[in-house]
Design goal:
Blueprint: E1 8-22, E2 37-48, E3 53-66, E4 69-85, H1 89-118, H2 131-143
Antiparallel strand pairs: 1-4, 2-3, 3-4
Length: 144
Protein backbone atom coordinates (compact mmCIF):
# COMPACT_ATOMS: atom_id res chain seq x y z
CA UNK A 1 0.00 0.00 0.00
CA UNK A 2 1.60 3.28 -1.12
CA UNK A 3 0.84 6.58 0.48
CA UNK A 4 0.30 9.55 -1.76
CA UNK A 5 2.21 12.65 -0.75
CA UNK A 6 0.09 15.44 0.56
CA UNK A 7 0.12 18.37 -1.86
CA UNK A 8 2.01 21.40 -0.65
CA UNK A 9 2.70 24.68 -2.44
CA UNK A 10 4.27 27.51 -0.48
CA UNK A 11 6.67 30.41 -0.78
CA UNK A 12 10.01 29.96 0.96
CA UNK A 13 11.55 33.29 -0.11
CA UNK A 14 11.09 36.16 -2.60
CA UNK A 15 14.07 38.31 -3.55
CA UNK A 16 15.54 40.63 -6.17
CA UNK A 17 18.33 38.73 -7.89
CA UNK A 18 19.54 41.43 -10.30
CA UNK A 19 18.54 45.04 -10.98
CA UNK A 20 19.80 47.77 -13.28
CA UNK A 21 18.78 51.24 -14.43
CA UNK A 22 20.25 53.10 -17.36
CA UNK A 23 19.28 56.63 -18.35
CA UNK A 24 21.82 57.47 -21.05
CA UNK A 25 20.37 60.83 -22.17
CA UNK A 26 19.99 62.46 -18.75
CA UNK A 27 19.73 65.42 -18.20
CA UNK A 28 19.09 66.43 -21.84
CA UNK A 29 16.09 64.07 -22.10
CA UNK A 30 14.24 66.18 -19.51
CA UNK A 31 14.12 69.10 -21.96
CA UNK A 32 12.12 67.07 -24.49
CA UNK A 33 8.36 66.77 -24.70
CA UNK A 34 7.43 63.67 -22.65
CA UNK A 35 5.71 61.25 -25.02
CA UNK A 36 6.76 57.88 -23.66
CA UNK A 37 6.75 54.70 -25.74
CA UNK A 38 7.20 51.65 -23.55
CA UNK A 39 8.44 48.24 -24.65
CA UNK A 40 8.56 45.22 -22.37
CA UNK A 41 10.57 42.02 -22.59
CA UNK A 42 9.48 39.10 -20.41
CA UNK A 43 11.16 35.80 -19.61
CA UNK A 44 10.60 33.16 -16.95
CA UNK A 45 13.13 30.52 -15.96
CA UNK A 46 13.18 27.92 -13.22
CA UNK A 47 15.59 25.50 -11.62
CA UNK A 48 14.98 22.57 -9.31
CA UNK A 49 17.09 22.99 -6.17
CA UNK A 50 16.05 19.77 -4.39
CA UNK A 51 13.19 17.26 -4.40
CA UNK A 52 10.74 19.91 -3.25
CA UNK A 53 12.48 23.28 -3.74
CA UNK A 54 12.34 25.26 -6.98
CA UNK A 55 13.75 28.66 -7.88
CA UNK A 56 11.68 30.70 -10.35
CA UNK A 57 13.11 33.87 -11.90
CA UNK A 58 10.95 36.47 -13.63
CA UNK A 59 13.05 38.65 -15.92
CA UNK A 60 11.58 41.96 -17.08
CA UNK A 61 13.21 44.51 -19.36
CA UNK A 62 11.44 47.86 -19.60
CA UNK A 63 12.60 50.36 -22.21
CA UNK A 64 10.96 53.78 -22.34
CA UNK A 65 11.69 56.06 -25.27
CA UNK A 66 10.60 59.57 -26.09
CA UNK A 67 11.27 61.07 -29.53
CA UNK A 68 12.92 57.73 -30.43
CA UNK A 69 15.60 58.29 -27.78
CA UNK A 70 15.94 55.99 -24.79
CA UNK A 71 14.80 57.85 -21.70
CA UNK A 72 15.47 54.91 -19.41
CA UNK A 73 15.95 51.18 -19.38
CA UNK A 74 15.25 49.04 -16.33
CA UNK A 75 16.08 45.36 -16.11
CA UNK A 76 15.10 43.22 -13.15
CA UNK A 77 15.34 39.59 -12.18
CA UNK A 78 12.74 39.03 -9.48
CA UNK A 79 13.08 35.54 -8.05
CA UNK A 80 11.55 33.25 -5.50
CA UNK A 81 12.13 29.89 -3.93
CA UNK A 82 8.98 27.80 -3.83
CA UNK A 83 8.13 24.51 -2.14
CA UNK A 84 6.21 22.07 -4.33
CA UNK A 85 5.35 18.63 -3.09
CA UNK A 86 2.92 15.93 -4.21
CA UNK A 87 2.05 17.35 -7.67
CA UNK A 88 2.24 15.58 -11.02
CA UNK A 89 4.65 16.88 -13.68
CA UNK A 90 2.01 18.82 -15.65
CA UNK A 91 0.83 20.61 -12.51
CA UNK A 92 4.41 21.42 -11.48
CA UNK A 93 5.02 22.88 -14.95
CA UNK A 94 1.90 25.07 -14.64
CA UNK A 95 2.78 26.23 -11.13
CA UNK A 96 6.36 27.13 -12.10
CA UNK A 97 5.41 28.73 -15.44
CA UNK A 98 2.28 30.63 -14.44
CA UNK A 99 1.43 30.75 -10.74
CA UNK A 100 4.94 31.61 -9.51
CA UNK A 101 5.50 34.44 -12.05
CA UNK A 102 2.06 35.82 -11.06
CA UNK A 103 3.28 35.93 -7.45
CA UNK A 104 6.61 37.57 -8.43
CA UNK A 105 5.21 40.16 -10.87
CA UNK A 106 3.82 42.67 -8.31
CA UNK A 107 7.19 42.77 -6.54
CA UNK A 108 9.01 43.40 -9.84
CA UNK A 109 6.47 46.05 -10.92
CA UNK A 110 6.79 47.93 -7.62
CA UNK A 111 10.59 47.88 -7.87
CA UNK A 112 10.50 49.12 -11.48
CA UNK A 113 8.10 51.95 -10.58
CA UNK A 114 10.17 52.95 -7.55
CA UNK A 115 13.42 52.96 -9.52
CA UNK A 116 11.92 55.06 -12.34
CA UNK A 117 10.59 57.61 -9.82
CA UNK A 118 14.00 57.78 -8.10
CA UNK A 119 15.46 58.66 -11.51
CA UNK A 120 12.76 61.42 -11.68
CA UNK A 121 10.75 59.73 -14.44
CA UNK A 122 7.04 58.87 -14.19
CA UNK A 123 6.37 55.34 -12.97
CA UNK A 124 5.69 53.01 -15.93
CA UNK A 125 2.79 51.27 -14.09
CA UNK A 126 3.07 48.00 -16.05
CA UNK A 127 -0.20 46.28 -16.86
CA UNK A 128 -0.71 42.77 -15.48
CA UNK A 129 0.66 39.93 -17.59
CA UNK A 130 -1.36 36.82 -18.46
CA UNK A 131 1.21 34.18 -17.52
CA UNK A 132 -1.15 31.34 -18.51
CA UNK A 133 -1.08 32.66 -22.09
CA UNK A 134 2.69 33.29 -21.82
CA UNK A 135 3.25 29.65 -20.76
CA UNK A 136 1.09 28.33 -23.61
CA UNK A 137 2.95 30.49 -26.12
CA UNK A 138 6.31 29.14 -24.87
CA UNK A 139 5.05 25.55 -25.14
CA UNK A 140 4.02 26.17 -28.77
CA UNK A 141 7.42 27.72 -29.57
CA UNK A 142 9.22 24.66 -28.15
CA UNK A 143 7.17 22.24 -30.25
CA UNK A 144 7.54 24.16 -33.51
Amino acid sequence: MSEELEQNFSIARIFTKDLSLESPKVPQIFEKQWEPKLSLEVDVTNAQLSDTLYEVTLKLGVTVKTDDEVAFLIEIQQAGVFILQGFDDATVEHILGSMCPNILFPYARETIDSLAVKATFPAPMLAPINFDAFLEQRKKQKTS
